[in-house]
Amino acid sequence: MKTRKRRYATTILATALLFAPGGCVKDELHDTPHPDKGVVAVSIDLPQGASREDYTVEIDGTTADGKEGRYTVSDPLPPGEYTVLVYNTPQGFTVTDGIARVERTDGTVRALTDFINPLPDYLYSGTKRITVVADDILRVDLSVAQRVRDLHIELTVTEGDPERIAAITGTLGGVAEAYDLYRGTLTGEAVSTRPTFAREGDKVSADLRLLGVRGDAQTLTLVLTFTDGQTQTVESDLTEILADFNGDMEEALGIEGELHTPVRAGMEATIKDWNTIPGDPVEAM
Protein backbone atom coordinates (compact mmCIF):
# COMPACT_ATOMS: atom_id res chain seq x y z
CA MET A 1 0.00 0.00 0.00
CA LYS A 2 2.82 2.43 0.81
CA THR A 3 4.37 1.87 -2.59
CA ARG A 4 1.12 2.66 -4.40
CA LYS A 5 0.67 5.89 -2.43
CA ARG A 6 4.19 7.01 -3.23
CA ARG A 7 3.73 6.45 -6.99
CA TYR A 8 0.42 8.29 -6.94
CA ALA A 9 1.84 11.25 -5.11
CA THR A 10 4.76 11.46 -7.56
CA THR A 11 2.39 11.46 -10.53
CA ILE A 12 0.26 14.24 -9.04
CA LEU A 13 3.37 16.33 -8.31
CA ALA A 14 4.76 15.93 -11.84
CA THR A 15 1.41 16.87 -13.37
CA ALA A 16 1.07 19.89 -11.14
CA LEU A 17 4.51 21.14 -12.10
CA LEU A 18 3.74 20.69 -15.78
CA PHE A 19 0.62 22.79 -15.72
CA ALA A 20 1.73 25.29 -13.08
CA PRO A 21 2.44 28.86 -14.29
CA GLY A 22 5.93 28.93 -15.70
CA GLY A 23 6.24 25.16 -15.39
CA CYS A 24 8.11 23.27 -18.18
CA VAL A 25 10.04 20.08 -18.94
CA LYS A 26 13.64 21.00 -19.64
CA ASP A 27 15.13 17.55 -20.42
CA GLU A 28 14.05 15.54 -23.47
CA LEU A 29 14.44 11.79 -23.42
CA HIS A 30 16.63 10.17 -26.12
CA ASP A 31 17.39 6.59 -27.01
CA THR A 32 21.06 7.20 -27.83
CA PRO A 33 23.85 9.67 -26.98
CA HIS A 34 23.55 11.04 -30.55
CA PRO A 35 19.96 12.33 -30.85
CA ASP A 36 20.51 14.03 -34.21
CA LYS A 37 22.42 11.18 -35.86
CA GLY A 38 22.31 7.41 -36.26
CA VAL A 39 24.76 4.53 -35.87
CA VAL A 40 25.07 1.61 -38.28
CA ALA A 41 26.17 -1.84 -37.10
CA VAL A 42 26.88 -4.38 -39.88
CA SER A 43 27.00 -8.16 -39.54
CA ILE A 44 28.36 -10.15 -42.50
CA ASP A 45 26.67 -13.41 -43.46
CA LEU A 46 29.34 -15.42 -45.25
CA PRO A 47 28.89 -18.51 -47.43
CA GLN A 48 29.86 -21.83 -45.89
CA GLY A 49 33.62 -22.27 -45.83
CA ALA A 50 34.45 -18.59 -46.41
CA SER A 51 36.89 -16.96 -43.97
CA ARG A 52 35.72 -14.07 -41.77
CA GLU A 53 39.12 -12.40 -41.87
CA ASP A 54 40.28 -9.51 -44.03
CA TYR A 55 36.93 -7.94 -44.86
CA THR A 56 36.31 -4.25 -45.43
CA VAL A 57 32.98 -2.52 -44.79
CA GLU A 58 32.38 0.89 -46.36
CA ILE A 59 29.33 3.13 -46.02
CA ASP A 60 29.42 5.68 -48.82
CA GLY A 61 33.22 5.68 -48.66
CA THR A 62 33.50 5.71 -44.85
CA THR A 63 35.29 2.62 -43.57
CA ALA A 64 33.73 0.86 -40.61
CA ASP A 65 35.72 -0.56 -37.69
CA GLY A 66 35.49 -4.16 -36.59
CA LYS A 67 36.49 -7.74 -37.27
CA GLU A 68 35.19 -11.30 -37.38
CA GLY A 69 32.11 -10.33 -39.36
CA ARG A 70 30.87 -7.44 -37.13
CA TYR A 71 31.55 -3.80 -37.99
CA THR A 72 30.42 -0.35 -36.81
CA VAL A 73 31.13 3.13 -38.17
CA SER A 74 32.93 4.99 -35.40
CA ASP A 75 31.20 8.34 -36.02
CA PRO A 76 27.38 8.56 -36.12
CA LEU A 77 25.91 9.42 -39.51
CA PRO A 78 23.39 12.15 -40.41
CA PRO A 79 19.93 10.81 -41.32
CA GLY A 80 19.58 9.77 -44.94
CA GLU A 81 20.13 6.98 -47.45
CA TYR A 82 23.48 5.24 -47.80
CA THR A 83 25.07 2.30 -49.60
CA VAL A 84 26.88 -0.35 -47.57
CA LEU A 85 29.66 -2.18 -49.41
CA VAL A 86 31.36 -5.30 -48.04
CA TYR A 87 34.30 -7.04 -49.69
CA ASN A 88 37.46 -8.97 -48.98
CA THR A 89 40.85 -8.40 -50.59
CA PRO A 90 42.15 -11.87 -51.43
CA GLN A 91 45.60 -12.71 -52.69
CA GLY A 92 45.86 -11.87 -56.38
CA PHE A 93 43.52 -8.85 -56.22
CA THR A 94 43.77 -5.14 -55.58
CA VAL A 95 40.73 -3.02 -54.64
CA THR A 96 40.65 0.71 -55.37
CA ASP A 97 37.60 3.02 -55.44
CA GLY A 98 35.19 0.11 -55.45
CA ILE A 99 36.90 -1.75 -58.32
CA ALA A 100 38.45 -5.17 -57.66
CA ARG A 101 41.20 -5.87 -60.19
CA VAL A 102 43.15 -9.06 -60.82
CA GLU A 103 46.88 -8.49 -60.47
CA ARG A 104 49.57 -9.30 -62.97
CA THR A 105 51.29 -12.62 -62.51
CA ASP A 106 54.21 -10.82 -60.80
CA GLY A 107 51.83 -9.27 -58.24
CA THR A 108 51.82 -5.65 -59.42
CA VAL A 109 48.96 -3.68 -60.93
CA ARG A 110 48.30 -4.98 -64.42
CA ALA A 111 49.26 -3.03 -67.52
CA LEU A 112 47.10 -3.52 -70.60
CA THR A 113 49.69 -5.64 -72.40
CA ASP A 114 50.36 -8.07 -69.51
CA PHE A 115 48.77 -11.35 -68.47
CA ILE A 116 46.65 -11.47 -65.32
CA ASN A 117 47.00 -13.98 -62.51
CA PRO A 118 45.24 -17.19 -63.65
CA LEU A 119 44.47 -18.44 -60.13
CA PRO A 120 43.80 -15.69 -57.57
CA ASP A 121 42.07 -16.46 -54.28
CA TYR A 122 38.31 -16.20 -53.83
CA LEU A 123 36.73 -12.76 -54.02
CA TYR A 124 33.49 -12.06 -52.11
CA SER A 125 31.38 -8.90 -52.01
CA GLY A 126 27.91 -7.55 -51.30
CA THR A 127 25.99 -4.26 -51.20
CA LYS A 128 22.82 -2.98 -49.56
CA ARG A 129 20.91 0.30 -49.51
CA ILE A 130 20.04 1.51 -46.02
CA THR A 131 18.18 4.42 -44.41
CA VAL A 132 19.78 5.95 -41.32
CA VAL A 133 17.41 7.47 -38.75
CA ALA A 134 18.39 9.98 -36.08
CA ASP A 135 18.67 8.78 -32.49
CA ASP A 136 18.77 5.13 -33.52
CA ILE A 137 21.09 2.18 -34.05
CA LEU A 138 20.50 0.48 -37.39
CA ARG A 139 21.56 -3.17 -37.41
CA VAL A 140 22.25 -4.50 -40.90
CA ASP A 141 22.70 -8.14 -41.90
CA LEU A 142 24.51 -8.29 -45.23
CA SER A 143 25.29 -11.41 -47.21
CA VAL A 144 28.14 -11.64 -49.72
CA ALA A 145 28.48 -13.64 -52.91
CA GLN A 146 31.43 -15.32 -54.61
CA ARG A 147 32.66 -13.26 -57.56
CA VAL A 148 35.08 -15.74 -59.17
CA ARG A 149 34.56 -19.15 -60.72
CA ASP A 150 36.85 -22.14 -60.98
CA LEU A 151 37.60 -23.53 -64.44
CA HIS A 152 39.31 -26.85 -65.12
CA ILE A 153 40.60 -27.54 -68.64
CA GLU A 154 41.50 -31.11 -69.56
CA LEU A 155 42.72 -32.45 -72.88
CA THR A 156 43.21 -36.11 -73.76
CA VAL A 157 45.82 -36.99 -76.37
CA THR A 158 43.83 -39.30 -78.64
CA GLU A 159 46.14 -39.14 -81.63
CA GLY A 160 49.93 -39.27 -81.57
CA ASP A 161 52.28 -40.22 -78.75
CA PRO A 162 51.73 -38.12 -75.59
CA GLU A 163 55.26 -39.01 -74.41
CA ARG A 164 56.63 -36.89 -77.25
CA ILE A 165 55.25 -33.77 -75.52
CA ALA A 166 58.16 -32.40 -73.52
CA ALA A 167 56.52 -29.12 -72.46
CA ILE A 168 53.29 -27.24 -72.96
CA THR A 169 52.32 -23.62 -72.36
CA GLY A 170 48.95 -22.01 -72.90
CA THR A 171 47.10 -18.70 -73.04
CA LEU A 172 43.38 -18.09 -72.59
CA GLY A 173 42.17 -14.86 -74.13
CA GLY A 174 38.86 -13.08 -73.64
CA VAL A 175 38.63 -13.06 -69.84
CA ALA A 176 37.64 -10.33 -67.38
CA GLU A 177 40.22 -8.35 -65.43
CA ALA A 178 38.04 -6.25 -63.10
CA TYR A 179 34.78 -6.22 -61.14
CA ASP A 180 32.73 -3.20 -60.07
CA LEU A 181 31.86 -3.99 -56.45
CA TYR A 182 29.18 -1.29 -56.15
CA ARG A 183 27.33 -2.18 -59.36
CA GLY A 184 27.95 -5.91 -59.16
CA THR A 185 29.14 -6.13 -62.77
CA LEU A 186 32.27 -6.89 -64.73
CA THR A 187 34.18 -3.88 -66.00
CA GLY A 188 37.29 -3.12 -68.00
CA GLU A 189 38.66 -4.64 -71.17
CA ALA A 190 38.96 -8.28 -72.17
CA VAL A 191 42.44 -9.56 -71.32
CA SER A 192 44.44 -12.78 -71.37
CA THR A 193 45.89 -15.12 -68.77
CA ARG A 194 48.49 -17.88 -68.82
CA PRO A 195 47.48 -20.89 -66.73
CA THR A 196 50.01 -23.58 -65.87
CA PHE A 197 49.52 -26.68 -67.99
CA ALA A 198 50.83 -30.08 -66.91
CA ARG A 199 50.84 -33.47 -68.60
CA GLU A 200 50.25 -36.74 -66.79
CA GLY A 201 50.11 -39.72 -69.10
CA ASP A 202 47.77 -38.88 -71.95
CA LYS A 203 46.09 -36.03 -69.98
CA VAL A 204 47.02 -32.36 -70.33
CA SER A 205 45.28 -30.08 -67.85
CA ALA A 206 45.24 -26.64 -66.22
CA ASP A 207 43.21 -24.89 -63.52
CA LEU A 208 42.03 -21.28 -63.50
CA ARG A 209 39.92 -19.01 -61.30
CA LEU A 210 38.28 -16.21 -63.25
CA LEU A 211 36.01 -13.21 -62.68
CA GLY A 212 34.31 -14.24 -65.89
CA VAL A 213 34.65 -14.16 -69.65
CA ARG A 214 34.74 -10.85 -71.48
CA GLY A 215 34.63 -9.73 -75.07
CA ASP A 216 33.36 -11.37 -78.23
CA ALA A 217 35.51 -14.50 -78.19
CA GLN A 218 37.42 -16.79 -75.88
CA THR A 219 40.44 -18.44 -77.46
CA LEU A 220 42.79 -21.06 -76.05
CA THR A 221 46.28 -21.05 -77.54
CA LEU A 222 48.71 -23.88 -76.76
CA VAL A 223 52.39 -24.10 -77.63
CA LEU A 224 53.59 -27.71 -77.71
CA THR A 225 57.28 -28.48 -77.44
CA PHE A 226 58.23 -32.01 -78.50
CA THR A 227 61.15 -34.13 -77.41
CA ASP A 228 62.94 -33.52 -80.72
CA GLY A 229 62.90 -29.77 -80.05
CA GLN A 230 60.17 -28.98 -82.57
CA THR A 231 57.27 -26.72 -81.50
CA GLN A 232 53.73 -26.29 -82.73
CA THR A 233 51.09 -23.71 -81.88
CA VAL A 234 47.43 -24.72 -81.84
CA GLU A 235 44.40 -22.51 -81.27
CA SER A 236 40.91 -23.52 -80.22
CA ASP A 237 37.74 -21.45 -79.94
CA LEU A 238 36.09 -21.81 -76.50
CA THR A 239 33.45 -19.12 -77.03
CA GLU A 240 30.52 -21.51 -77.29
CA ILE A 241 31.40 -23.82 -74.43
CA LEU A 242 32.10 -20.86 -72.11
CA ALA A 243 28.99 -18.91 -73.16
CA ASP A 244 27.31 -19.44 -69.76
CA PHE A 245 30.46 -19.20 -67.66
CA ASN A 246 29.37 -15.95 -65.97
CA GLY A 247 26.32 -17.62 -64.45
CA ASP A 248 26.64 -19.70 -61.27
CA MET A 249 29.99 -18.56 -59.90
CA GLU A 250 29.98 -20.98 -56.96
CA GLU A 251 29.82 -24.05 -59.20
CA ALA A 252 33.16 -25.02 -60.71
CA LEU A 253 33.15 -25.78 -64.43
CA GLY A 254 35.19 -28.50 -66.07
CA ILE A 255 35.64 -28.76 -69.84
CA GLU A 256 37.38 -31.49 -71.82
CA GLY A 257 38.51 -32.00 -75.37
CA GLU A 258 40.70 -34.15 -77.60
CA LEU A 259 44.25 -33.18 -78.51
CA HIS A 260 45.55 -34.61 -81.77
CA THR A 261 49.32 -34.40 -82.09
CA PRO A 262 51.32 -35.04 -85.29
CA VAL A 263 51.96 -38.68 -86.13
CA ARG A 264 54.20 -37.85 -89.08
CA ALA A 265 56.02 -34.92 -90.62
CA GLY A 266 53.89 -32.17 -92.08
CA MET A 267 50.90 -32.74 -89.79
CA GLU A 268 49.55 -30.03 -87.47
CA ALA A 269 48.24 -30.45 -83.96
CA THR A 270 44.52 -29.83 -83.46
CA ILE A 271 41.98 -29.71 -80.63
CA LYS A 272 38.50 -31.13 -81.17
CA ASP A 273 35.23 -32.14 -79.50
CA TRP A 274 34.91 -29.85 -76.50
CA ASN A 275 32.43 -30.95 -73.85
CA THR A 276 31.65 -30.14 -70.24
CA ILE A 277 32.94 -32.70 -67.78
CA PRO A 278 29.95 -34.68 -66.44
CA GLY A 279 29.29 -35.28 -62.75
CA ASP A 280 30.59 -33.15 -59.93
CA PRO A 281 32.44 -30.02 -61.04
CA VAL A 282 36.20 -30.13 -60.74
CA GLU A 283 37.44 -27.67 -58.08
CA ALA A 284 40.50 -25.70 -59.15
CA MET A 285 43.42 -26.09 -56.76
Features:
single chain; mainly beta; Immunoglobulin-like; five-stranded antiparallel sheet; elongated; disordered N terminus
Count of domain modules = 2
Mean pLDDT: 85
Q: Which descriptor suits the 3D outline?
A: elongated
Architecture per CATH nomenclature, i.e. the level-2 architecture of the largest domain: Sandwich
Q: Considering DSSP H and I runs of 4 or more, what fraction of the residues is helical? A: under 10%
What gap, in angstroms, lies between the N and C termini? 76 Å
Proportion of beta-strand residues = over 45%
What are the segments in which pLDDT stays under 50 over at least 5 consecutive residues?
1-26
Number of strands: 20
Brief write-up:
The chain is built from 1 helix and 20 strands.
Overview of this structure, please?
The protein is mainly beta. It has two domains: 30-146, Immunoglobulins (Immunoglobulin-like); 149-276, Sandwich (Immunoglobulin-like). 6% of the residues lie in helices and 47% in strands. It has one helix and 20 strands. Strands 7, 8, 13, 14, 17 and 18 form a six-stranded antiparallel sheet that branches. Strands 3-2-6-9-11 form a five-stranded antiparallel sheet, with no helix packed on it. Strand 4 (65-67) and strand 5 form a beta hairpin. The longest helix has 18 residues, at 2-19. The model is unreliable at 1-26 (pLDDT under 50).
Present the secondary structure layout.
Layout: H1 2-19, E1 38-45, E2 55-59, E3 62-63, E4 65-67, E5 70-72, E6 80-88, E7 93-96, E8 99-102, E9 124-132, E10 136-143, E11 145-146, E12 149-159, E13 165-180, E14 185-193, E15 198-200, E16 203-210, E17 219-226, E18 231-237, E19 253-260, E20 270-276
Parallel strand pairs: 1-10, 12-19
Antiparallel strand pairs: 1-5, 2-3, 2-6, 4-5, 6-9, 7-8, 8-13, 9-11, 12-16, 13-14, 13-17, 15-16, 17-18, 19-20
